[in-house]
Write a structure and sequence with these properties.
Elements lengths: L1 H9 L4 E5 L2 E3 L5 E6 L2 E4 L2 E7 L7 E6 L4 E6 L6 E6 L2 E7 L7 E5 L2 E8 L4 E5 L10 H15 L8
Length: 158
């Protein structure tokens, strides 16, 4: 019971999935929503800027209170993305060169797995038995970035 309370305190718990412009939890409750390059997670609003060029991916989001969230490719390909969410460092690594699933690592430890699905993108804990410590806003932003990079073009956010 205490373990469950600890997980809920971190914000990210269980498995979430993007359905259209909404990130929903296992019960179907909306966790986050993206509209017109604004990502809303609980009471937090992040203004998203896509700074990508033809050969590189870079996304920056700025919270209303000035906190910065960044994600960019780490090298010549998008196999590895480096991210920073208000100073918390993450690495988003594709498991295989051709696979679209990514493992999100924090301090070298897997904390979440992101998988494209037919309907959108899902994000789940890397180990359901161990709390991730990942804030909900980080999970929402990072899964949104994976959605932008890894989904087929027809399903990507506009």
């Amino acid at each position: 019971m205490a373990e469950r309370a600890d997980r809920q305190a971190t914000g990210f718990d269980g498995a979430w999935r993007w359905v259209g412009d909404e990130l929903v939890d296992e019960r179907g409750a909306v966790v986050a929503r993206e509209s017109n390059d604004v990502l809303v997670v609980a009471e937090q609003r992040l203004l998203i800027e896509r700074l990508s060029s033809r050969f590189s991916v870079k996304v920056r989001a700025t919270a209303g209170d000035g906190r910065i969230f960044l994600a960019a490719q780490d090298g010549l390909t998008v196999r590895t993305l480096a991210a920073s969410c208000d100073g918390r460092a993450y690495e988003l690594v594709r498991r295989k060169s051709v696979a679209r699933a990514r493992t999100i690592r924090a301090q070298g430890r897997p904390v979440a797995v992101v998988r494209p699905t037919r309907a959108g993108v899902s994000i789940g804990e890397a180990d359901p038995e161990e709390p991730t410590g990942m804030p909900a806003v980080d999970a929402a932003f990072l899964s949104w970035v994976c959605r932008l990079v890894d989904q087929p073009r027809a399903l990507r956010p506009a």
